């Protein structure tokens, strides 16, 4: 028995950290992600191999998060008939780990789908959250949800995804600061700040919620200029939560100088990635070139009105 699963990464346009406490976030699936292949074996502990990273883990290991996450996912999956009791899973990922692009969630969803290609989306998400909790402690669930669905959505913790209607493609330049970031560490840092200064943090969260609601209106109206301004304001608020870095601020400034309509960190912050909104497809070239000239890598991701146009026969993006 062999199963194959794919999942894309994600970028958060607005709403980081507030989303952990029940606020809305706007997230978009991107066309880079992870692919997993599961092969049933007769006996022995199940093993995970992440090609290109030189990483492997056994479900019997207990000395690293990768092994613990793999075991948690398998434990959840084995409650369903048809999931192999013993298997080898090979993963290929083309997202930077710790980059704020949902790499771990994409890998988790891909593994879950490869274990049972007929498992419904809700089941895949349950298995993936068991994996995610090992890495991130108290994840919002937005990474796993958007990785499984693709497209553009408003996400609220514990609520169904709300599709956001696009008037046309969004052209996003995604740049890597070169510094990895731990989502768990940054979520914990904001939690500690919230304990020390609850009124300040709650005011910030409320302001972020307002920006997210206005951004949804801007997207659905096709107003990219307004969306860009709202992204800039969101970045300012995130800086006030001390989750930005000098590299993030530099990349945002360089992107804006090169013509970006707006730019901000994406994900938990503390490093990771930056997302910049380009006015047009051709305008993205100048942003990526400016980052490269300043020593940063980046790539273009398009968010299209009909994400399902990219699906394969098995209902997964290529």
Concise account of the structure shown:
The chain has 318 residues and is of the alpha+beta class. It has two domains: 2-163, Ribosomal Protein S5, domain 2 (2-Layer Sandwich), CATH 3.30.230; 170-303, GHMP kinase, C-terminal domain (Alpha-Beta Plaits). 40% of the residues lie in helices and 24% in strands.
Supply database-style keywords.
single chain; 318 residues; alpha+beta; Ribosomal Protein S5, domain 2; Alpha-Beta Plaits; 2 domains; 24% strand; disordered C terminus
What would you say this structure looks like, in words?
The chain is an alpha+beta fold and 318 residues long. The protein has two domains: 2-163, Ribosomal Protein S5, domain 2 (2-Layer Sandwich); 170-303, GHMP kinase, C-terminal domain (Alpha-Beta Plaits). 40% of the residues lie in helices and 24% in strands. It has nine helices and eleven strands. The strands form two sheets. Strands 1, 2, 3, 4, 5, 6 and 7 form a seven-stranded mixed β-sheet that branches. Helix 6 (198-221) runs antiparallel to helix 7 and helix 8 packs across helix 9 (283-293). The protein is globular. The two termini are 22 Å apart. Mean pLDDT is 91; it is low at 307-318.
């Amino acid at each position: 028995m062999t199963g194959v699963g794919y999942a894309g990464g994600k970028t958060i346009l607005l709403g980081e950290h507030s989303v952990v406490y029940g606020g809305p976030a706007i997230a978009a699936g991107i066309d880079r992600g992870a692919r997993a292949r599961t092969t049933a074996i007769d006996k022995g502990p199940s093993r995970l191999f992440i090609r290109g990273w030189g990483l492997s883990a056994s479900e019997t290991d207990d000395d690293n998060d990768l092994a613990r996450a793999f075991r948690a996912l398998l434990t959840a999956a084995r409650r369903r008939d048809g999931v192999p009791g013993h298997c080898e899973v090979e993963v290929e990922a083309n997202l930077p780990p710790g980059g704020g692009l949902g790499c771990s969630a994409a890998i988790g969803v891909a593994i879950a789908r490869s274990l049972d290609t007929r498992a419904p989306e809700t089941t895949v998400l349950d298995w993936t959250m068991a994996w995610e909790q090992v890495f991130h402690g108290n994840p919002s669930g937005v990474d796993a949800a958007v990785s499984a669905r693709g497209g553009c959505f408003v996400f609220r913790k514990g609520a169904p995804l709300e599709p956001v209607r696009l008037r046309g493609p969004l052209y996003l330049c995604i740049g890597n600061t070169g510094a990895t970031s731990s989502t768990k560490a940054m979520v914990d840092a904001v939690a500690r700040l919230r304990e020390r200064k609850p009124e300040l943090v709650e005011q910030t969260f409320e302001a972020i919620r307002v920006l997210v609601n206005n951004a949804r209106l801007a997207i659905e109206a096709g107003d990219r200029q307004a969306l860009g301004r709202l992204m800039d304001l969101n970045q300012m608020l995130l800086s006030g939560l001390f989750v930005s870095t000098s590299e993030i601020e530099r990349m945002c400034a360089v992107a804006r100088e090169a013509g970006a309509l707006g730019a901000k960190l994406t994900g938990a912050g503390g490093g990771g990635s930056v997302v910049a909104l380009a006015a047009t497809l051709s305008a993205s070239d100048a942003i990526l070139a400016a980052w490269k000239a300043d020593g940063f890598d980046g790539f273009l991701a398009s968010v299209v009105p009909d994400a399902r146009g990219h699906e394969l026969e098995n209902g997964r993006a290529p």
